[in-house]
Design a protein that fits this description.
The protein is of the alpha/beta class. It has an 8-stranded mixed β-sheet with strand order 1-2-4-3-5-6-7-8. Helix 1 links the parallel strand 3 and strand 4. Helix 2 crosses helix 3. The mean pLDDT is 96.
């Protein structure tokens, strides 16, 4: 597995060379690049160049002390892509990765030719935002062992989701270093999408799960004129793994559209 060092932080990633529009895949909170493995394989088979990093603190990447702000993740990805000569990419972010992708589109426009947010809290609804100050303080201590699975189960899963996959996801999330878990969710809480107001953004797609979207979609549409919306059938938050064929079909259509628009 190749790695890239940015400011002494190791960023692990997978890369597939391809002649078609590059696709950058960004995973979510307490996850890793394997959560977008079906999408990486799909686009590689079509002939696209694919870059799929483990964000700092996640997977095989380094987990330093310090900030886990969305802008820090975005700066890591931008530096990685620059080192690989990747630009004009369709950036696909799942969950927290969608916030990072949005930040990249705002601050690194040459990198992003198309933006996809898969069930991401880019414009977090007020009710969800109001609940985080009570949840975050439960993460540093032993309450974390019950707080995280309770939160993830209530907010992110649907009854139709595969039970074995759900158990594996909950187990993997619980093993993420506490300072990363806390820093990243605090980073999501602190992040403000209003920086995008009035800026020219690339073509953008939001894919929601079967239940309640994690973003306030009217607010997101106001920030992203021409925002396209999709929704999967029969899956909760982890739709990239649960119903990859549905997700991949929407992504393939969108990547082609973005390429033609560019």
């Amino acid at each position: 597995m190749p790695t890239f060092d940015r400011d002494l932080v190791r960023i692990a990633y997978d890369r597939t060379e391809g002649a078609l529009t590059p696709v950058v895949l960004l995973h979510g909170w307490c996850c890793d690049r394997s959560y977008l493995a079906p999408q990486a394989a799909f686009f590689a088979a079509l002939g696209h160049g694919v870059v799929a990093p483990d964000l700092r603190g996640h997977g095989a990447s380094g987990a330093p002390d310090g900030s886990y702000a969305m802008q820090v993740f975005a700066d890591d990805v931008a530096a990685l892509c620059d080192s690989l000569g990747v630009s004009g990419a369709v950036v696909v972010g799942h969950s927290m990765g969608g916030i990072v992708a949005f930040d990249l589109a705002v601050r690194y426009p040459a990198l992003v030719s198309g933006l996809v947010m898969i069930d991401s809290a880019v414009t977090r609804p007020e009710a969800s935002r109001a609940g985080l100050p009570a949840f975050i303080p439960r993460l540093p201590g032993p309450e974390r062992e019950t707080a995280v699975p309770d939160y993830v189960t209530r907010v992110l899963f649907q009854p139709t989701d595969d039970a074995a996959r759900k158990a594996a996801i909950l187990d993997a999330m619980a093993r993420v270093a506490p300072h990363v878990m806390i820093g990243a969710i605090q980073g999501m809480y602190d992040w403000d999408p209003a920086e995008a107001a009035g800026k020219a953004l690339p073509p953008a797609l939001f894919i929601a799960n079967t239940g309640k979207p994690l973003s306030d979609l009217p607010r997101l549409a106001a920030l992203v004129p021409g925002l396209m919306l999709g929704q999967v059938v029969g899956s909760g938050h982890f739709c990239t793994l649960e119903v990859p064929d549905q997700v991949n079909a929407m992504l393939a259509w969108f990547v082609d559209l973005a390429a033609r628009a560019g």
